[in-house]
Sequence to fold (267 residues):
Amino acid sequence: MHLYRWLTSVVAVPLLVYIVAAGPRWLFYTLLFAASLKGLFELLRIIAPGLPSSLKIISILVHLFFFYGLWRGLFYQAFALFCFWVIVPLAFCLFSPPALRNRAAEIVGSLALAFLYVCLPFGLLMVMDWYPRGNLWILFLLTVIFVSDTGAFYFGRFFGKRKLYPSVSPNKTWAGAFGGLLAGVISGLLFSYLFRLGGFPLQAGLLAGALSVCGQVGDLVESMLKRNAGVKDSGRILPGHGGLLDRVDGVLFAVPILYLYLSRFTP
Fold:
């Protein structure tokens, strides 16, 4: 499993760096759309098993129009589609058999959560790409989160004794959390220095620390959802890592922090 984890990273990381940093933007946006759609269905498999196929098709269509609206710069129209993500399933449940109608709040709540948790952060990544040097800021985010995740894994493996949150994630330790934070801050400072991003080193370090903490919380949140559902992995698309959601859970939680930073400090 550990070997598969590294082999997947060796293949996927250079490809991802190329697509984000230098690839044609349509390819990057297509990747965001595909990853968002895959993450959407992985999450729904966890929190809403047995979702009717009709609602899955509706979700795909709304998801498609949401990303198309963002791509065309129709921000208000794109976010207004969130209403349809709630209204259409509610209307669908209204005219469904009692077994489904009685689960209307649960079903629509799951769909709304999936949009806010998965689709919206991926959409914000597209918007951040339009900021000055936005592609480098996205790589900064990915670097901090992935290095933090790796640091947490190895610090926890070699130094971890005291469990961080055993009822949610039995393998995580306080040493791993500290190691992940330290690795994330160092990687953020190095990235900021090499590519001249951000302002003072303290500012870059604080941003990297905030992203790392949010990433670790996101990891715990996904563990909580999987444990509640009795699921080990969100999927099997990435050998050694599990599902796509298992790999990007931290990124999804950190995206809003970076977006707020860019909207405040970037002209």
Notes: The beta strands are 163-165, 169-173.
